[in-house]
Amino acid sequence: MSASKVKMRERKLKNQPVSVQYLSSSTQHSGSSGAVGDAGPSDTHTSAEHAKTPQQPGGWVRGHQKDGGGYTREMPSCITAVAFAQARAAEVSAMLKAVTKTTGSCHVFGALPKHMRRRAMSHNTKRLPCRLRDVANRMREKSLQSGSKKKEQAKNKSRKARRRHGNLLLEFNRRQRKNIWLETHIWHAKRFHMVKKWGYCLGDRPTYKCYRPCYRAMSSHCLLQDLSYYCCIELQGEEDKLLLALSQLTSKETGPTFAAISSLSGQRQGSLVVYRAGEYPSQPLGPVTFLWRPRAQGSGHRHLWIWAHPTMKQDLLPELQVVCQCSEAVYPLLLPVGIPAGTTHELQPKPENSSEVEQVTGTKRKRSSEDASVPPAKKILGDGTRSPTTPVTWKSSSTGIVINDLTMEIVRYRLIGPQSHAVLADILEAATECDEKSRAHPSSLWWPEHCRDENKMNLHKQQAEVYQTLKGVSNSGELPPGTVLGLTVDDPRLTLPSKKVKALASVKPAEDVDEEKRRELMLRGVPEHCCQSHLWEKSVRDNVTDHKISEQQLNRMKSEVLVPGSRLTPTPPQGRVPILLVHQPGKQVGREMSSWGAGWDLLLPKGWGMAFWVPLVYRGVRIGGLHMSLKHSQNKGAPHFPHDYPDCPAGVHFQEEQEGEFLDKFKRRPPAKRTNYIKHGCLAPFRCPWQQLAEEWELILGEGEKRRGESQAQNMAPSDTVMEEPMTSQRDVAKPRSRAAVLRNRKSLKLLSGWCRPVTSRGQRACRTAEMPPLDRSGVARFIAAHEMSLVWVRLSLLSKGKPEVHAMVCVPTAEDLQLLGKGPGSSGPQEPPHKDHLRSRTKHKKKAKTSLPSKMDSSEPATSEDLEPSSDSTLGLWPDPLPSVTSHCSRVTLGWVTQGDFSLSAGCGEALGFISVAGLLDTLAKQSMEHRGVVLLRNPASLHYRFAKVNIEV
């Protein structure tokens, strides 16, 4: 018998009773008894008979054999009654024990006999015997209460029930309670990888390859993005009081403020960085864009919209309330506009003493009589996570300023590319006037009432003329940056093409476009009175949202047209929408790819998102997500929020989240497959210690000045030394440590840009060097004294091949490194010598010394630091906290780090965006020659190879 068969036999006989005996293979033969446990007959056979009988294959074998399989063919001649009865009794007891024995689980159904165990009894306890029903009911209630461990079963298991219109809407509203859904969420969810960020559910990148197609769309056609997640805060009040309050949050040193003439008139959109009240240049909050409503005749009351990223709203809104003195919250008396009355029971918490009994899980949900009388819920428009009782308006009794939170009240789309202007011209048509029949009767719609006012209709005609002139502009980059145009358009669903078509600008100029007006528009922009829009009025926005034509009603009206595919005539009165067109400037620095990335922002009332989104998609635009927003900023050479704002609260929080994500990804790999950053000489591969960098460079320059002062004091006369002592003592007075801040003073940035010699850098705009002060020791000292502990935003262009990565190190080249650069533009950079991983070697040493550790403990010698085990938080390949010196850790002195890096398709080389220390940059520039000024080294965290790069400071 083979070994496998022996194991199988032992496994089958393991549970048999001990009293049952089986004969071994040596005793089984043809003449032996076939009765199990019959020991008597086996003793009557003699050895002679056993020898006469041929040897039969003994033991248990699987299956049937040709010769009977080794089983005896003859019946035994006699049996012993006592032995036979004992064997049968043992088998009967074993069988009874197996039947009566319950299973290993403590379930009540295991106590039933085998023939009574049915699956139906676990669902219906009435099928159980009476003595077991109470125990089964208690166990069922206990399992229902532990809902946290096991998910509840769906109440509606049928797909037909789930796909009912009312249930779909209820589920739609329920799922966007925690994370807000944009109006284009379902469209994105079918085609994009969705991420949950900043309280929203947003599309990150498409499920198909899109990097180069999206870049081609931004360069030659149009890219569309949904920016409705940006928060809008409205300020109302007198112009002088608004400007006085907002002046505390800005500074003229950083550029145009809220009081800029072009922006204050409402003709341009402005942008700036907001700080905490009176804290400039420290404690910035982040960048915002703002838009003033054009002035009304004879009124000083103004409206201002401030658009901010959702991560800085929690910091910006309280700051605006403080400077505007708006502490009185206005609670809404009615429900928000986007939430119908039928959904109030979903938003309000249930009462504790409710008489209604909750439905048991697994039963079919039916509509109650109360729900049957209520119409089906509508889709939540706006912020569905906000409670109806949450205030969204704050006012001030002293200043008269009113603050309104318009988050998710306005839809904002961004079109990027040279043909974005042609796309808008193809889908937007100026609203047609109502007929006399509609004007004669009073209407609840806003457009028929609007058509009765001649002044408003004259303004609409002038805006339509400007828009018609705007169609003659071939490229959106030819217009003044930030141009604003107000307009009222027809429903774009009325002109939806049957197939996708790619909208392109007309090669031939339009005959009805005046060339003189077109040039005036390209030079000075839209007139001030044409920037007005009814989108500023809340009553008009609510009216347009509430009376929007549904898709079902619109399709029914199209089916009744005599000629299929033709436009509805006359246009339905509820099909007029007020909009705002805001021009977005493209790349404004450098000489290559000028105005790259320019486009338009389309502002709409809520509820009309998909009505404009689908017609835009049908014009052949490419759709981008959050990832392409980052790449768009990178190609423009502009900082992206919150990635490139390390001194803002949102930027600090983002860096902490990014470090956690990179560290988790690093730890998921096995230790043998990880990059050993200690050997690569990289202290912080997943974060950038900006504060430590600024403090170390301040200390380095302070020690250098101290050494120079000591050397000068030794060469001076004793009288001069006495005069110098008070100054030295004043200089050595300890100052309180300040936090590292980003330098945003435009005058200082222009000075730094000139010292970096932007004329020799790739794609930089030439500047007049005659007006700049010389770069000497005194000028550097004055600059550092004015901007200590400061970081500067730079763009680094690689002079040879290479692709910079996130958190790459920017270092100072040595004199020998610059000699390699003189060999040619494509010369390879220096190499960093490998570092020794002391942490790994110490860990191996401790593993070997574990056996000898008790003997050391018994001795009287004190334990050294090498005998101590590393902390549990330390990770192999990473430096544990606290970090050593970040500037002098490698063979080259560190200046800063990269926050964005990739191969730039617009520049044709590797480009990196990041921050470097102002003190380190000035010290490096002062020591470099004129031909090599502004040249630095760049090294990726997982590489030992340095690359030459040029520093560009663009203002």
Explain the overall architecture.
- This protein is an alpha+beta fold and 955 residues long.
- Among the domains are: 167-205, no CATH class; 221-228 and 409-550 and 569-625, no CATH class; 230-276 and 283-330 and 380-407; 649-707 and 738-759 and 772-836 and 875-952, Beta Barrel (Elongation Factor Tu (Ef-tu), domain 3), CATH 2.40.30.
- Helices cover 33% and strands 14% of the residues.
- It is built from 32 helices and 23 strands.
- Strands 6-7-8-5-11-10-9 form a seven-stranded antiparallel beta sheet. The chain has a six-stranded mixed beta sheet with strand order 13-14-15-12-4-16.
- It is globular, with a radius of gyration of 41 Å.
- The chain starts with a helix and ends with a strand.
- Mean pLDDT is 79; it is low at 22-60, 335-373, 717-735, 759-766 and 853-869.
Quick rundown:
The protein has 955 residues and is an alpha+beta fold. It is globular and about 130 Å long.
How is the biggest beta sheet arranged? 7 strands, antiparallel
CATH topology of one domain: Elongation Factor Tu (Ef-tu), domain 3
Helix content: 25-40%
Our measurement of the CA-to-CA distance between the termini, rounded to an integer number of angstroms, reads: 90 Å
User: What is the overall silhouette?
Assistant: globular
- How confident is the prediction overall: mean pLDDT? 79
Strand order in the largest sheet: 6-7-8-5-11-10-9
Number of contiguous helices = 32
C-alpha Rg (nearest Å): 41 Å
Q: How much beta, percentage-wise?
A: 5-15%
Assigned CATH class of one domain? Mainly Beta
- CATH homology superfamily of one domain: Aminomethyltransferase beta-barrel domains
Keywords: Nucleus, tRNA processing
Organism: Takifugu rubripes
GO cellular component, one term: ribonuclease MRP complex
Protein name: POP1 homolog, ribonuclease P/MRP subunit
